[in-house]
Amino acid sequence: MTNNDILKKLRVALKLRDDDIVKILSLVDFRISKSELGAFFRKEDHPKYMACGDQILRNFLNGLVIHLRGPLPKKETKKEGV
Questions:
Q1: The pLDDT of residue 81
Q2: Vertex 41 angle, CA 37 and 42, to 5°
Q3: Less Cβ crowding at N or C end of the chain, within 10 Å?
Q4: E strands present in the chain
Q5: Is the Cα torsion angle 30, 14, 43, 46 positive or negative in sign?
Q6: Average pLDDT value over all residues in the chain
Q7: Has residue 82 got a pLDDT over 70?
Q8: What is the pLDDT of residues 48-70, one digit of tens each?
Q9: What angle do CA 49, 62, 32 make, to 5 degrees?
Q10: Helix 54-69 and helix 3-13: axis angle, to 10°?
Q11: How far, in Å, CA of 51 to CA of 13, rounded?
């Protein structure tokens, strides 16, 4: 199973649109256009097909965690001498 297949299956399972995926990637400061994203969802024999790299899938999964759970709460620092 390729990264493209994983991305496609997650998109369908979570009912995400291209806009949603772009927003999810922006949560981890990863910028991608809708046309670049569309190249990942094409068939392998299409001339505009592009393989989804590990970096893109990793950033999408990290952004998806933030999207579904929310950002991590900030840790409180201990005050010494109190």
A1: 61
A2: 115
A3: C
A4: none
A5: negative
A6: 91
A7: no
A8: 999 999 999 999 999 999 999 98
A9: 40
A10: 20
A11: 20
- 29 and 63 in contact (C-beta within 8 Å)? no
Indicate the pLDDT class of residue 72, thresholds 50, 70 and 90. confident
What digits encode the pLDDT tens for the residues 4-40?
999 999 999 999 999 999 999 999 999 999 999 999 9
Task: Give me 49's structure tokens.
Answer: 């097909």
H helix runs in 1-82, sequence order: 3-13, 18-26, 34-40, 54-69
Angstrom distance (rounded) from CA 23 to CA 49 = 22
Q: Could you give the angle at which helices 54-69 and 18-26 cross, rounded to 10 degrees?
A: 90
Of 51, 26, 17, 20, nearest in space to 36 by CA: 51
Amino acid letter, residue 53? G
